[in-house]
Amino acid sequence: MNKPNIPLPYVDHFGLSPADLRSVLGIALASGGDFAEIFMEYRTYDFINMEEDIIKETAEAVSIGLGIRVIRGDRTGFGYTNDLALDKVRKAALTASAIAHGKSDGASPPALRDRTRATSRYIVRRPAHKASLLAKMALVREAYAAAQAFDKRIAKVKAHYSDSLKHMCIANSEGLLVRDTRPMVKLVCVAISEKDGKRESGYWGGGGRVGLEYFRDVLTPRRIGEEAAREAVLLLGAADAPAGEMPIVLAPGHSGVLIHEAVGHLLEADFSRKKTSVFWNKMGKRVGSPLVTIYDDPTVPSFRGSYNIDDEGTPPRKTLLIDKGIVRGLLQDKLSCRLMRGRLTGHGRREDYSCAPIPRMANTYIAAGEDAPEDILRSVKKGFYVASLSGGQVEDSGKFTFSVSLGYLIEDGKLTAPVKQATLIGTNIDILNKIDMVGTDLEFGLQTGTCSKDGQDVPVTDGCPTLRIAKMTVGGTS
Amino acid sequence: MKKEAPALRDLAESLVTLARKCGADEAEVSVSDGYEFNVDVRKGKIEQLVEAGSRVCGLRVIKDKKTAFASSSDLEMGTLKRLVRNAVRRAELGNPDEFAGFAPLSKETVDAAALKLYDPAIAGLDSKTKIGLALETERAALRDKRITNSYGATFASNEIRSVLTMSNGFVGEYAQTYCGLGVGLQAGDTDNRVEDSWSSSKRHFKDLESPEAIARKAVERTVRQLKPRKVKTQNVPVIFEPTQTAWLMGFLFGCVTGTAVYQKATFLEGKLGRLVGNERLTVVDDGLLPGELGTHPFDSDGLPSRRTVVIERGVLKNYLCNYYAARKLRLKSTGNADGNGVGPNNFYLEAGTVSPKDIIAGTKRGLILIRTLGHGLNSVTGDISRGAFGLWVEDGEIAYPVSEVTISGNLGKILEGIEAVGNDLEFHSPVTGPTVKVAEMTVAGE
To answer: Do residues A418 and A341 share a domain?
Structure first.
């Protein structure tokens, strides 16, 4: 997986020369900003929707724009435009510069040096943007048909395909000029089952920063359709979830959502800088059991959350967040890093050119432990097994939830009845201390996840091995 | 902004003509031009200031009953022409859909000016005033010594001009404004933090709540959660505060859209004309309320906005449809087309006559729901399971705050078990409702 991979060709749609960019950076700093940056983006997007047995519609989107940011101390000025005529760009720079309302030291920004990487983490053999629409439709039809054929209780199916290609270029007042071209594909299927007037739904999907070969080599459309249908059918026979505190076992993969919510968000540096996170004063301190080690790694090849550079142009690195229960790191962007005198980790991300970057997760996971997964299950006399998850949320106090779409009861160390959706709630430090078994079987969840923060959505991946939590509150009804 | 309107309309009309020339049977183009101002202040200083204008163009073409969409923020004519030609070509590759097609041109129209969607005062505000309002709101909140940290205060305003042109002859345009002011707070020490916020969002600047009022509500909502307890798992009545009724109504909205009905993705499929709740339940979608956030003169099918009774005294009267879903279900469009889907106008639970105070006083034991965490809503089954924060009620009085519990139940049962509807309906958001008391939900704790 580590062999050098050739980046997708970058195509400049912006028509601004390095000299133009440098002069715009000069305008941005004219009121005395400490730092200025230009972020340019050109994105194309394709979408196919199949429902009611037909390819109901297709869509194509083009997005172009440029965002200019000026930082002075802890203040940020930001302007953007989707008209890239030089006069409009200069106006956006002036808007952003107003935040500084002082005087420039007169020095012009340094000459820009291109630091674009010659290799890429996006391993693409059959680029989606070059494939025909018919080839993409065939993938959607295959997933749809597989879900429909899976069981006669499948009443409705929906399948969606999307791909995008984002060309981006960043120039800043530190002399950085860097480009990246990011691919993304995604195929998902929703199946609705029906029996005796009762209905349930199942969901499955995959993708990442890959080409269409992924749907042949890694996860086939057929499997996506079948897994969605399997979950929908299984839920028809599922009991109501239990209510109250009980031991929990988390399946590997999907359950990484727990770590994303319980730990990842509150170690994003802006929450520590503002002291709103329960973790702000916990650096070097124990917050969980010694079995818990957590990383965020944007460098995993081809994952949905991966990138060659972050959205500030910083090359990312695998970042240790929690080492054997002790807080060791934060996810940093440039602003928080400057103010906290920290070390850049390459986690400054933004949804698009119209947003200023903030510290975000990429691919967050809990490292494998030493327990055999079957021993973990066997150790629980009566409890709740989390098989698949549909999302979660956290607040700065550390209270967090995650929603289970399919679970099982554990009785005498074995999975018994499937159970329906339930939300689990806990407080992060309490739950991290109650993780008392960690499996050897680290896996990553579906490559379809999106994380929201401050109104900005970015693609992410989560991972975890089989885990046992001694006790957590399950929000069922029985 | 206004002087640029003909340019937007000309652009939209020329693209419709081009699409027809390229072979589209029907074509529709929307263009919107927006201006955004946003300032975040924190601890008495500006944290971030954003100011920008942006445009976006959307396109729908139908050829031989096959549909294709396109959109672009690049309004360069070469790009737009390419997207139009691609869309017609792509449409040919899809499958024919007997229900595809534009709504016939409506004879009725709604006078956009009468809806009071645009406030020139917002365009006239200078940056200093807007920044000042945010600073004043946070300052007022931080005067309370129980507040230990601030997420900061925000003032935001938007002006948007939209044009919609269709090959059936429809041409519509209007301008609208929004402004919002809010603050987020924390109380308690680092290991016992509680948080909440309050914001006011309006189309007219004069309707915005004052900085002091916003600060007071944000402080009160935050500090009342200090020193929470976790309760034992039990089934009790749950009182939804209006902010909570709002998400419950949002969930109900998703369950009454025509799209969800034909996709069998809602437990309310097949229930038209049937009793789905008790007589206290009347739910309305109204696109015509002057000056409200969910008001528009026409929807994205070019059909005039209207008022639709969705549930009347417990009886499901109407699904909310765009033209496509309506055709599929042999119903009439309710003017809820929103892009390619169905969206709410002002979708609300009608107010009752009881005051929230009396609802609490009439509750022997139960939970007042004040915030939730997580998603946990399934429209296929109606099942709800969410993390919850609340206030525990004993003998008609608030006893103590509750946290780290979940509430669960089923929307169908909740609608049947509404015991009281408050008289405190306000249009803080397009989807809204008053205080509501539900007979029973499971509160899971210890």
So the answer is: yes
With an 8 Å Cβ cutoff, is A426 touching chain B? Answer: yes
User: Quick one: CA dihedral B134, B135, B140, B143, positive or negative?
Assistant: positive
Residue A12 lies in a domain: no
Final residue before a domain boundary, out of A236, A266, A283: A236
Is there a single domain that holds both residue A221 and residue A279?
no
Residues of B in Cβ contact (< 8 Å) with A193: none
> A75–B380: do the CB atoms touch at under 8 Å?
no
Range of the domain at A117: 18-236
Contact B42 A64 (CB under 8 A): no
**Residue A1 placed within a domain:** no
Residue B290 identity (one-letter amino acid): P
pLDDT by 10-residue block (mean), chain A, 478 residues: 72 92 94 94 97 95 96 93 93 90 78 92 95 97 98 97 98 96 98 94 97 97 98 95 95 92 95 94 96 97 97 97 97 96 96 96 97 97 93 92 94 95 93 97 95 96 96 90
CA separation for the pair B76, A142 (Å, rounded):
37
Taking only the tens place, the pLDDT of each residue in B403-442 is: 999 999 999 999 999 999 999 999 999 999 999 999 999 9
Which of these three, A204, A236, A268, is where a domain ends? Answer: A236
Shortest alpha-carbon distance between residue B187 and chain A (Å): 10
pTM of the model: 0.95
Contact between A140 and A54 (Cβ < 8 Å): no
Please indicate, yes or no, whether residues A67 and A138 belong to a single structural domain of this protein.
yes
B contact residues 343-372, partner A, Cβ 8 Å cutoff? none
Judge if ipTM > 0.95.
Answer: no
Q: Is the Cβ pair A475, B376 closer than 8 Å?
A: yes
Residue A121 sits in a domain of what CATH number?
3.30.2290.10
B251 close contact with A: CB closer than 8 A: no
Given a cut of 70, is residue B2 above it in pLDDT? no
Q: Tens digits of per-residue pLDDT, B93-138?
A: 999 999 999 999 999 999 999 999 999 999 899 999 999 999 999 9
Domain ranges for chain B, please list them: 2-223, 228-446
Q: Looking at the structure, do residues A108 and A220 belong to the same domain, yes or no? A: yes
DSSP designation for B397: E
User: Quick check: A275 contacting B, CB < 8 Å?
Assistant: yes
Residue carrying the six token digits 């818990």:
A292
Chosen CATH of B2-223 out of 3.40.30.10, 3.40.50.1100, 3.40.640.10, 3.30.2290.10: 3.30.2290.10
- Integer Cα distance of A321 and A305 in angstroms: 17
Residues A229, A262 within the same domain: no
List chain B residues with CB under 8 Å of A158: 263
Q: At what angle do helices A86-97 and A18-28 cross, to 10 degrees?
A: 30
CB–CB contacts below 8 A, A to B = 245
| Residue A305 belongs to some domain of the structure | yes
> Can you tell me the distance from the alpha carbon of A178 to that of A174, in angstroms, rounded to the nearest whole number?
12
Instruction: Quickly state the pLDDT bin for B375 (edges 50, 70, 90).
Output: confident
CA A63 to chain B, closest CA, distance in angstroms equals 5
Suggest the residue from A397, A404, A474 to mutate for an interface test with chain B (most B CBs closer than 10 A).
A397
Put simply, the answer to whether B408 touches A475 (Cβ < 8 Å) is: yes
Residue A4 lies in a domain: no
Within this chain, do residues A258 and A332 fall inside the same structural domain, yes or no? yes
Q: What is the DSSP string of B133-149?
A: HHHHHHHHHHTSTTEEE
Structure-block tokens of residue A341: 């005198």
Min Cα distance B43 → chain A (Å) is 10
By Cβ distance, the residue of B52, B72, B91 closest to A354 is B52
Q: Which helix (H) or strand (E) holds A376?
A: helix A373-378
pLDDT of residue A99: 84
Counting every residue written for chain B, the total comes to 446
**Do residue A167 and residue A282 come from a single domain?**
no
Q: Please give the tally of structural domains in chain A.
A: 2
User: What integer is the mean pLDDT of B28-39?
Assistant: 95
Give yes or no for a contact between B143 and B183, defined as CB atoms under 8 angstroms apart: no
Nearest residue of A to residue B42, measured between CA atoms: A274
Put simply, the answer to whether A92 touches B52 (Cβ < 8 Å) is: yes
